[in-house]
Amino acid sequence: MADGSEVALRDLSDYLAEDMAACNRAIVERMDSPVALIPQLAAHLVAAGGKRLRPLLTLASARLCGYRPDATHQRHVALAACVEFIHTATLLHDDVVDESSLRRGMASANAVFGNKASVLVGDFLFARSFQLMTDDGSLKVMNILSSASATIAEGEVLQMSTQNDLSTRIDQYLEVIHGKTAALFAAACRVGAVVADREGAEEHALESYGTNLGMAFQLVDDALDYAADQARLGKTVGDDFREGKITLPVLAAYAAGSEEDRAFWHRVIEESEQKPEDLDHALRLIEQTGAIRITLDRATEYATAAREALSIFPPSRLRQLLQDTASYTINRLR
């Protein structure tokens, strides 16, 4: 049975079906290459599915701002494909760094094709994204998307520097997830406003919507690593735990834990000394300390801010769908 977030995204995708079909065609076309391994790996990524939420946000933002494409001008479609390439490139690189074996419930590209191929095809997709930016011809669009690409890399490096460090402050953790996730959500929304020539209050509102939606989305993702079954999560449950990643559920459980509990977290996270039964114990501590509720409450605050950011737009079906997407993002934890 589909949860609320899936229903909301399906409704948004259905509303933008024609634009999304054009975006998917652009993605497939730009993934083509005479170098056989590139389309092979690309086909694996396409088969793995994914919600395509980020390109949907670009398409929806452009339409919300009144963008009217014609047969020869489909800037929102090309830039939505560009956003998806940036996202997919970072996923390829992240799975190599994290040594992940699953992505969206399927074997990850690095598990099938190897680390070298994944890194190089990720580089190819980054290059394709910059070709699409150049084709668009707007320096402002290029600045928004290239800045977001740099911020994503900074977020990943910052996450690496906080890994295995339980002294990480919550504001540092929030800076990590802003960089690795929310920055691209914000950029995806902003360029939709820019192509519609709404580079004022509407642009800022959509940037705020994207930022807050991205923060809520990543908070929920981090909680799911300790609160979902593997089939539902689409990756191995406990990956963040095994990698020693510092996320809000861990920080909350550590802060609320007893001296004995803290000693456990130090051993498994900071010293990376983990036994087979440690994940189950970590899940019990997460539950006992209400760490998932703390994370959900913070995610709800961001989702509410995302909804409110859209209040400057007149009521419409599309505005409601975007607000529902923000509300239902946190339903993945319910």
Automatic annotation (TrEMBL):
The name under which this protein is listed is: Octaprenyl diphosphate synthase
Give the top-level enzyme category.
transferase
The UniProt keyword set, sorted, is: Magnesium, Metal-binding, Transferase
A single GO BP term for this record reads:
isoprenoid biosynthetic process
The EC number(s) this enzyme carries: 2.5.1.90
InterPro entries the UniProt entry points to: Isoprenoid_synthase_dom_sf, Polyprenyl_synt, Polyprenyl_synt_CS
Q: Does the keyword Acetylation apply?
A: no
The UniProt entry's sequence similarity note says:
Belongs to the FPP/GGPP synthase family.
Kindly list the GO molecular function terms attached to this UniProt entry: all-trans-octaprenyl-diphosphate synthase activity; metal ion binding
CDD domains, sorted: Trans_IPPS_HT
Note one Pfam family from the annotation. Answer: polyprenyl_synt
Native organism = Komagataeibacter europaeus NBRC 3261
Q: Which cofactor does it need?
A: Mg(2+)
Q: Does the keyword Transferase apply?
A: yes
The record's catalysed reaction(s) read: 5 isopentenyl diphosphate + (2E,6E)-farnesyl diphosphate = all-trans-octaprenyl diphosphate + 5 diphosphate
Q: What does this protein do?
A: Supplies octaprenyl diphosphate, the precursor for the side chain of the isoprenoid quinones ubiquinone and menaquinone.
